[in-house]
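Q: How would the structure tokens look for this protein?
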Amino acid sequence: MPALLLNLLTTAELLAVTPWAVRRLADPGAHALSRVWLLAAAPAAFAVWMPHGPDAVAMTLLYLTATLALACCAPLRLLRTRSLTNREITLLLALGTPFLAAAVQAAERLGATTAGLALTPTLAAQAHLAATAVVLAGALLPAAEAHGAEPAARDELQPTAA
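A: Here is the predicted structure in token form.
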């Protein structure tokens, strides 16, 4: 039963939540990738349900490639904006973090070990959950600021009263 729930959660993250958030990132490269995101995420979501092995890894490689393309948007954005405000750092992390989750999923589907410990489906699901949280933060932060919400973190340090 826990494996079923874990697979359902990972599938929902891959096919619904992450594509929704990527589409809303304030980056032209992410916006362009969002148009084909499901084509890459669907095989990875299917791979979650497959047994370990080369077939499951092959299904994950397309998603790994799409997340690599998204991660490549980060240095391009940094060159374009030349800004390291808290908002920009959040967006840069949102562009790069899904690649780490996809790499963990590919390694887990391969049955790889790290420091003698096997990568588990739970770890892969946690990596996807963390990446989804970062992408959601990157997508929702500008919307919250546009509606007059106080920024979650200041771009400059505020002096404190002694």
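The mean pLDDT is 87.

The chain has one domain: 2-146.

Upvote if useful.
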